[in-house]
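Need the bound structure for fructose -6-phosphate, inputs here:
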Amino acid sequence: MEVVVSPTPEDAAGRAAEAVLAGLPRDGGRDPVLGLATGSSPLGLYQELGRAVAEGRVDFSRTHGFALDEYVGLPPGHPEGYREVLLREVCAVIGLPPERLSVPDGSGDDVPTLMAAARAYEDRIRELGGVDVQVLGIGANGHLGFNEPGSALASRTRVKRLSDRTRRDNARFFQGLEDVPTHCVTQGLGTILDARRLVLVATGDAKADAVAAALEGPLMASVPASVLQWHRDTVVCLDEAAAAALRNRQYYDDAAAGLTER
Ligand code: F6R
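Answer from helper R.:
Posting the output first, comments after.
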């Protein structure tokens, strides 16, 4: 795990964007595949990627994008449905073609229909060669995607109940708590672990405890983001506030400084 602490959220977004760019394949052999989180945490990162496009450093026109998750039961075109969010906040910003964006299908009326769509989603990721870089945020309760505490570490894309905490946290995007869906379809922790590189962005003091539990606590289902410890290429980009509860901070800073003291 590489843990990079930056002075400000803007700097953390810049570091995260560099980690994403470094993880994308450049050989032209197959189209790159980018895994996309929604929520507030990666917005600065997407803006930075947009800047890199404008500077001619990267071109996402041949990239496929896969969302981490989607709510169940929102009407098609609902502005807070994650397809719409990603069209606005990613496709329009980095030039990812909308027809190359895939989002789990949360429109099914029953669990078998939703589960069939979830399996098809996994198949589609595999067909395209797997995710090269997965962008992640972390919930204040330690969730990753919408894998709430208690999620199996090897889970695959499936229907999940949202926790009360997550529904309250996300009520800011809706008219009120009662409008927040109760269920979602989310990539599983096992699905997320299949990505070749994971880039997690967390900023603000509300995330400090979850970040410390995920990075320095035991690997366990009650802290789903602790599964990051199991992945061989994870980059965690934090601002000072989100890093405040880390015990091993000095080591991360020393390691990030590279080989200068050899
Ligand atoms: C979003 C997602 C969630 C968020 C997390 C943090 O697709 O899967 O895990 O990353 O809830 O949300 P923000 O960034 O809004 O604090």
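Comments: The CA atoms of residues 37 and 114 lie 20 Å apart. The domain at 2-257 is CATH 3.40.50.1360 (Rossmann fold).
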